[in-house]
Design a protein that fits this description.
The chain is α/β, with parallel strands linked by helices. It is built from 9 helices and 9 strands. α4 links the parallel β3 and β4. The longest helix has 21 residues.
Amino acid sequence: MKSRPAWRQQWSTLLLLCLPVLAWASETAEDGVVPAARVPVIALIIDDLGARATRGRRAIELPGPVAMSFLPGGRHTAELARLAHDRDKEVMLHMPMQALGQKTRHHHAGELMAEMPQPEFLDTLARNIAAVPHVSGINNHRGSLLTQTSSNMAWLMQALFDHGELFFIDSRTTAETVAADMAVAYGVPSASRNVFLDNEATPEAVRRQFRELVKRARRDGSALAIGHPHPATLKVLNEELPRLEAQGLQLVPVAQLIERQKERRLAWQESSSP
């Protein structure tokens, strides 16, 4: 029997090696557009809203589905939350939580404290949720002590699970946080902050952090950033957000990013199972 020429054997081997790449390419539309499930996504949260009306309105005017997170005791919280909802922005509660080194006697009204009895803790949480109209999720304000206290996070996540309609974002104000793990344990939709945009509130620093956000989204498929209504932050975001689509990225609501990350985890688990 006549053997195949060496070049044909080499070509067949090369074709087999390329099959995974060809399979990925077959999912791309004929016009070269990457399927939506493969486009890296970014979500943004603007924190600390509610105290200043002008800054709040400027934040709400940011282009695209940027989430707005309101302090429950802010003078303008209810008014701005309704405006954000009317402008199709996600509305979140920026939940004050006890920080490391903070004395119990120095806490503010509406702040969750580690030493609170459970009934007081849950009552404070419920009042804060009720203070923000159209709330769809929560992220922590400060909380470097509370988010590493398992018992408090268990109370919080059980309450959010019972509520049934709220997600949780761990702002990661401490590397020792257990909040995201507790959210998973209690079945609460959740994600963690990847980038703080404006620890240094200058245009150059914010732009540098925004580039880091884009880098992470491209690497991991998704990334979440938190910023504040500083003039420098709003200036950079007004410039950079309209450019995302041309860079092959998509700005999405926080809830959509959570769902994307969940789908990626499930797909990875299925591919890793025997």
